[in-house]
TrEMBL record:
Name the UniProt record assigns to this protein: Carbohydrate porin
Keywords: Signal
GO biological process, one term: carbohydrate transport
InterPro entries: Carb-sel_porin_OprB, OprB_Porin, OprB_sf
Length: 410
């Protein structure tokens, strides 16, 4: 894995020269360009290809369990097929995608509950999305079915994706600690219905398979079996996207109802039903000019469950700030701040204490970063993380993690 970092950087730098292009790489939406017109021809025929690479280097420079540094990366690639263009099936799309994750994390060295490198988890190659989606009623209703995960559609925000720490990147992380929210890169059988109530409001519901083997990377996303022991995760979510003073806001509230055997911390009897609630709000509190994306956006999240006999982090909240175009001449850059609080389960903490180990109280993650948008298709982001009470006990010194992440669309 040591050679992955230079190879990834070389890929980002050299891909733009692979095909002869008239458009400079700094202006392209995809680093590989139009492939001499082949990409446009494919799109006109109903085929859209995509590939996204994310790489992270992180070093635990102070505190934690020990010093360590590591690189990890992930490639997400696939194609979408417009079946209306291909076969005349109105408003229907088929998608297929794969994932390759490589490298390792420094999480053991840090000793925290939250991963400081968001591309770590299932370091192998996966088949991911295999979905069929159809629009009805002039796109007011959307139905999707196939191999997917709840994190494709639920419990997430574009602002989460800027974080290098996994506390909020992708989704509110506490919901994943429960073990009953299906997540990228581990696909399961699922279905999602989305209904646009009006211009600013939509509701969606999704059902997803739960199985004992769904987190096993050795299956590489190809375990299509449905077993009698499988459970079901049902997500419902309401989104409202209004504007206030001509500046955008986004709100969502939702819950996950899971029906699956879950191990209790304090009993040999399983919990068979589980509920977690979650919510998010973001608002552009300052805009540099009317209708401009540049300015300051603040967001806050909450995730909560009363079932702390199975949820190790029953309550989590994150506050974030994203300023686009803070510095003159860097209008497309983003300056970032995140602060996450994760409160550990009282039941879990009591069991740990009775076993002679330290009680876990809370862990906090503070992150500061700046994303340099090198082009519409690439970025580089230096990052600083400070982890308070790693693991929640106070036995491990607060940790300082320095690093960077970069990404490109091809």
């Amino acid at each position: 894995m040591k050679n992955k970092l230079p190879l990834a950087i070389a890929l980002l730098v050299t891909t733009s020269t692979t095909f002869a292009e008239n458009t400079p790489w700094q202006e392209r939406d995809r680093l590989s360009g139009d492939w001499g017109g082949a990409r446009t021809a494919l799109a006109d025929s109903g085929i859209e290809t995509f590939a996204y690479y994310t790489g992270i280097f992180a070093s635990n420079v102070d505190g934690g369990n020990e010093s360590d540094e590591a690189y990890a990366g992930g490639l997400f690639f696939g194609a979408k097929f417009d079946l209306e263009k291909k076969f005349g099936w109105d408003d229907t799309e088929f998608a297929i995608a794969g994932i390759d994750r490589h490298g390792r994390s420094i999480d053991a060295a840090v000793g925290g509950q939250y991963s400081v490198m968001q591309v770590v988890g299932g370091q192998t190659t996966f088949l991911y999305n295999v979905t069929l989606e159809k629009q009805f009623m002039d796109d007011q209703l959307s139905l999707k079915f196939g191999r997917m995960s709840a994190t494709d559609d639920f419990c997430g925000s574009p602002f989460f994706s800027y974080s290098m720490n996994n506390a909020v990147n992708g989704q509110i992380r506490a919901a994943l600690f429960d073990g009953v929210m299906t997540s990228y890169p581990f696909a399961v059988w699922g279905a999602r219905a989305k209904y646009q109530i009006n211009e600013t409001t939509y509701a969606q519901i999704g059902t997803f398979q739960l199985s004992e083997s769904m987190w096993d990377p050795k299956n590489h996303g190809t375990d299509f079996a449905i077993r009698g022991s499988d459970g079901l995760s049902v997500f419902t979510q309401l989104n409202w996207n209004p504007t206030f003073n001509d500046r955008p806001a986004h709100f969502f509230v939702g819950m996950n109802n899971a029906f699956f055997d879950m191990d209790r911390f304090d009993s040999d009897q399983d919990r068979e039903e589980f509920v977690r609630f979650y919510a998010n709000a973001d608002y552009q509190v300052y805009s540099e000019s009317p209708d401009s994306d540049n300015g300051l956006t603040l967001f806050a999240t909450i995730g909560y469950t009363s079932h702390d006999d199975v949820a190790i982090v029953p309550v989590q909240s994150t506050f974030g700030a994203n300023y686009r175009g803070l510095f003159p001449g860097r209008e497309n850059d983003s300056t970032l701040f995140f602060a996450t609080y994760g409160g550990f389960s009282d039941v879990y903490s009591k069991v740990e204490s009775e076993a002679g180990r330290s009680e876990a109280d809370y862990e906090m993650v503070i992150e500061l970063a700046h994303r340099f948008q090198l082009s519409p298709a690439s970025y580089f982001q230096p990052d600083l993380q400070y982890i308070v009470k790693p693991g929640g006990t106070g036995d491990i010194d607060n940790a300082l993690v320095l690093g960077f992440q970069f990404g490109g669309s091809f």
